[in-house]
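Read as chain and fold; for instance:
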Amino acid sequence: MKKLFAEFFGTYWLVFGGCGSALFAAGYPDLGIGFAGVALAFGLTVLTMAYAVGHISGGHFNPAVSIGLWAGGRFSAKELASYILSQCAGAILAAGTLFLILSGKPGFAIDNTKAGAFASNGFGAFSPDGYSMGAAFLAEFVLTMFFLLIILGATDKFANGKVAGVAIGLALTLIHLVSIPITNTSVNPARSLSQAVFAGGEPLSQVWLFWVAPIAGALLGGYLYKTLLQKNETE
């Protein structure tokens, strides 16, 4: 249960900190943190929770990461379902907290006819810069694949594990710097689901892509690291 609570709280923090920065601070008049600030916020959520609870659960905070670690031989299949449920529950509760805070502002309403509604992900008309479904899928696939390569490499027993959290947090920051204009950046199905549940409408109908593409990329990343990059004891 401690592992599941760690994943719950870690994913809650990721969504609250990352999506919260996008909702509250990104476009704040004159002093907004912008794309770079949101990217850094997502990276910091993972970095801080990696050191806070990573030693308890492994610090996945993302269904695609759990699945990719399984593909890479680092995680048990029997724990996948419980981890993913905990991650989704934490993400949805965080989105609910954000919704309640935003509801305290006069005139607040989610306009789910526009890209990025409630920090949701999307493609086509719901991509921040109008990228197609194919472009969005490719971006999410490639970025999640490399995210898994970085995670597996940084946490390899031959690597310097003390700085793994820094490498992973900076990787997520870089991923957001690249892809916020394309999809508003997912690489995390739980993060996408949580915002889409509250946005509803088209963002919710498009959430499938932000499950399929990251999971497919994570599976390939895990497989590639295990078969092509992982160092054996005899090497």
About this structure: The mean pLDDT is 95. The radius of gyration is 17 Å. The CA atoms of residues 23 and 119 lie 6 Å apart. The domain at 2-229 is CATH 1.20.1080.10 (Glycerol uptake facilitator protein).
